[in-house]
Every structure is written in C-alpha cells, then in structure tokens.
Design a protein that fits this description.
Strand content: 25-35%
CATH class of the largest domain: Alpha Beta
Low-confidence stretches: 7-11, 27-33, 158-165
Distance between the termini: 29 Å
Largest sheet: 8 strands, antiparallel
Strand order of the largest sheet: 9-5-6-7-19-18-17-13
Number of domains: 4
Shape: globular
Radius of gyration: 23 Å
Oligomer: single chain
CATH topology of the largest domain: DNA Polymerase III, Chain A, domain 2
C-alpha cells in the first residue's frame, strides 16, 4: 500500500486582482464533502502582522524534517484550516510528523462572520510565504475561509500552487497528537524576557542526548543533566523553529505529557495563539506512536458517528455534556466515545479550554483503521485463530498468542498490560500496545 495520498486540485492557488486589492486564493482538496457551503468565514484580521508571522512559522514547521531523506524532504505538504465556533485554526506537521504546530485565531483576533463551520486543506507555497512576509503592522487585511478556497485580501504579489501528495502519516498523526495533548499538564510559564533567554540557551547543532528544562529562581535553565521537577525534551534543537516568533510573544507556557512522551510549547499574542508540540525524540513521529490504537479496539456504530457529526456541525462545537443529555448517552460512555472519536481524527484538543474541539476532516474515516499496521496484524491474528484465552476474570486476563515458532504470553491486569514479545520488551508500552495485546483486548471486548 502506498504511503501517500495524491491530491488533485481542481484549481490552482493564485493572487488575483480585485479592484485596488489582491485576493489570495488557496486551492483545497477533500475526499468527502458534507454539503455545498461556499464560505465558512469572512472578516478582517485584527492583528494581521502577528497572524502572518505565526503562519510563516507554521509553514516553516511543515517544510522541516528531522529524520527523513532528502528525497522525502523534497515533497511539500499542506496545512489544514478549520473555521467554526468563532475560531480559525491552522494545523500542520513537520515532514517527519514529529512536530505538530497550530495557529489559533481566537474570537477577539478577527472581526467577521462565521457563516458555517468546516475544514479545508490548503497549499502554502513559497509565493504565499512571500505574501505573508509582506504584511505590515496595522495593515488592513481580510481573510475568508471557504469550502473551495481560502483568501487573504491585501496588496501583494501573485501566488500559484502546484498539486502535491499528502502522506498518510499526517492523518495518523492527527489521530494521535490530540490524545497526547489531552493527557498533558502545564508545568512552567515564562514572560517574554524569560522565553527569549530560554530559546537562546538551546545548544547549536543536533544534540544526541535529552535535555531538561527547569527554573532556577526566575531564570529558565536548560541542561543535559536530569534535574528535579525538570521537563525532559528529546530533540531539543527542534525548538529553534520558534526563534523568530518568541520575541513577539507576550507569554510562553510549557506543558508536559504525564510520562514525558511529548512536550507542548504554547505562545500567546493577545487573541492569537501558537501551539507547538514535540514528540519524545526527533526520530519518532506522532504518526507511529500508536497511542490511538487502544481507543480503536471498540467499533463505534456508524449511526452514532453520524449523530455526533450532525450534532457538532449544527452547534459548531463538541459539547460532550449536551450531547450526552440529548442523545441519552451515559457520561462515562460519552468520555470513552470522545476518546475514540479523537482517535478517528474527528476531534482536536485545546489545552487552554481543556476540552476537545470538533473539525470535519477532508478524508474518509474508514481510512483511519486501515492505516495502522499493528491493528491490521492484530486482526489477522484473530482471523487465523492464533489467540487463546487461558483465564479470564474481572481482575485478570491471561492469554497465549501464537507467533513465528513461539507463543507469547499476554497479561491484562486492570489498566496494565504486558507481553513477552520483543516489541513490549523494547518499548515497555511507551509507543502504544503491541499487536498481541491488541488482539487479546479485541477478542475479549
């Protein structure tokens, strides 16, 4: 199976003359369309200079790679844009999917109207970056987000985009990074001076060891030596993508995953926010972590997904409490459903609001489970009848899974799971559960 999805755009992006202004139109692609909605949002950006700088940093992230070959790096990628619930969100991954970036234009960051909510996929080519770079402070800039185009209205040069392939690892990354964000807590806050000091302390080159961030008095300290209450950062050099943005920020907040599987760095610019998440190591992409696999074990009925989609679309947000009441779903079941829907890519996560947000993704949901090789291998083990349950009680499950000339023992005890395979021995569950544990859990579910 190919690891890319070829996108064929119906039109090219371009900066077209409209009276005294130039209109920047960005082409988009979608495998599925909910209905014909020509425009989602139209209005002015209240801080176009900051918004443009954040989008440039997002584009720099999208064009970066920390573990791919020059051939793979040559393939450009597309940010995803979501408009709805009074917010405009731009999302993207580095080529290697080990860095996730998002620009949130909050309600006070625009002066416009949301006609409908929706998600589209647009191209950021070099011409577009040049146009964003030319945005000046207090310049009058209009933004529109629609089903078939995103337009930036300002005086500037013409921009044209070409069709590009979108790696499936982006889709897999979207289903994983949100679960890491949902399991993240704030650990540090820095003002502008402290944030600049921190960014300048990042060592040059590509450090081969983990670094730890701590606070000594009011000063951030970055060290390769482990420190008490320090945040572990793998591939710290990736943070240099924020060098041009940090001096403009009012504040930097640092969030860490409870088992240090990711770190998130959130920059605040009034009503514009920039979120930047790093995977555990530079060579690890969010797309391969497998955090979503356990959430995909139980099938979600198509009828329930359709009800969720219609409810969230109508309300322009995901409100689990309201949906649980209206759809007569238990609150515990609703929380489990939210996790599964996130694993399917239908939900993102907002750290400040500590809640998931709804987005309509431009690809078929049926593609999600087919993209996880461990899930496919687990289903094959079940189809070949290679999973035997030795004992099954409320507290403990023991099973034997037939491998290549060997039987692996799987133990499930409460929320803990263990396996005798080499994958589990190597990763100890840090990169999701192995195919043997997946098969056993799916068999008893």
């Amino acid at each position: 199976m190919s690891d890319t999805i070829s996108y064929h755009y119906s039109i090219a992006s371009g900066l077209k003359k409209q009276g005294n202004t130039d209109e920047l139109l960005l082409a988009k692609y979608s495998e599925v369309e909910k209905k014909d909605a020509p425009c989602f949002f139209w209005g002015r950006l209240n801080d176009p200079y900051i918004t443009a700088r954040c989008l440039i940093t997002l584009s720099n992230t999208v064009k970066s790679s920390f573990n791919l070959s020059p051939f793979q790096i040559a393939m450009l990628k597309d940010p995803i844009v979501t408009a709805g619930n009074e917010k405009i969100r731009f999302e993207g991954f580095s080529h290697c999917a080990g860095v996730y970036a998002r620009v949130d234009v909050l309600p006070g960051g625009h002066d416009g109207e949301f006609l409908e909510n929706g998600t589209t996929n647009v191209d950021f080519n070099q011409g577009m970056i040049s146009a964003l770079s030319s945005v000046r402070k207090k310049e009058d800039v209009l933004l529109s987000v629609g089903q078939k185009e995103v337009a930036l209205h300002k005086n500037g040069e013409k921009v044209v985009e070409k069709k590009v392939p979108l790696p499936t690892k982006w889709i897999k990354g979207l289903t994983t990074v949100q679960l890491y964000l949902a399991d993240t807590e704030e650990v540090f806050r820095m003002n502008r001076i402290q944030a600049v000091q921190f960014i300048r302390s990042i060592p040059k080159g590509k450090p081969k060891t983990d670094y730890y961030l701590g606070m000594r008095g009011n000063r951030p300290v970055l060290s390769p030596a482990k420190m008490e209450n320090g945040v572990c950062i793998g591939g710290v050099h990736r943070l240099r993508l924020l060098e041009q943005l940090v001096p403009l920020a009012d504040e930097l907040r640092v969030f860490a995953h409870k088992t240090m599987q990711s770190t998130t760095w959130q920059l605040y610019f009034g009503d514009v926010r920039f979120t930047f998440s790093l995977s555990r190591d530079a060579w690890r992409g969010f797309s391969g972590e497998g955090a979503a696999l356990a959430s995909l074990i139980e099938d979600v009925p198509e009828a329930l997904i359709s009800r969720f989609d219609n409810f969230s679309f109508a309300n322009q947000e995901f409100n689990p409490t309201m949906m649980a009441i209206e759809e007569n779903i238990g609150f515990k079941d609703m929380n489990n459903l939210a996790t599964r829907l996130s694993a399917m890519g239908l939900l993102g996560f907002d750290l400040d609001e500590n809640s998931f947000f709804y987005r309509r993704l431009p690809f078929n949901l049926s593609r999600i489970t087919s993209l996880n090789p461990r899930m496919k291998e687990a289903e094959k083990l079940l189809a070949d009848d290679k999973v035997s349950i030795v004992s099954h009680t409320a507290e403990r499950v023991e099973a034997l899974v037939e491998g290549s000339g060997i039987h692996h023992t799987v133990l499930l005890e409460g929320n803990k799971s263990r396996c005798t395979c080499t994958w589990y021995a190597r990763h100890q569950g840090e990169r999701g559960i192995c195919k043997h544990i997946l098969a056993v859990k799916k068999k008893i579910s």
